[in-house]
Amino acid sequence: MAQFVRNLTEKALALVNTAVAYSKPRLATFWYYAKVELVPPTPAEIPTAIQSLKKIINGAKTSSFKQLTVKEALLNGLVATEVWMWFYIGEIIGKHGIIGYDV
Amino acid sequence: MVSPVQVSLLIKLASYSALFLSMAYGARRYNYLKPWAEEERRIANWKKPKRIASSFWNSKVLDSLLQTSS
Description:
The complex is a heterodimer of chains A (103) and B (70).
Chain A: H1 2-37, H2 46-61, H3 70-95
Chain B: H1 9-46, H2 52-57, H3 60-69
């Protein structure tokens, strides 16, 4: 019995070590990109964001979006879909469940 | 490695605000649905037939009542 427990702890430790060794470089790459791409905007940068929004609304008013190529339009649609998916992820966190409300 | 992209500020602002607003929305809706579901369960259980009546007819009380009359 004691032998079994000792073997189990050794194997578990070895597993944990391999997991850490595997994930460290990948976490490093993730952090390298996240530091630039996923940083939330500081309050000072919000006016710039609102300027971009006004530009988009102006584009919609003057129908200049018809000058976009199909490729650009598809990319914009993809970006909009990603923002919408962030909404669903937040909802999953808020309701503490992945599918459906666990009432 | 590919160098990281400077994501537009509008996209970042929109995604983070969508994240936090939806967390609040999810929590709010969960708190709203919870008592409603409990009420539904209560009503569903109330509609089940009560077993008291059948257990009375099978009990020895009824036998003893019938024997006194015969």
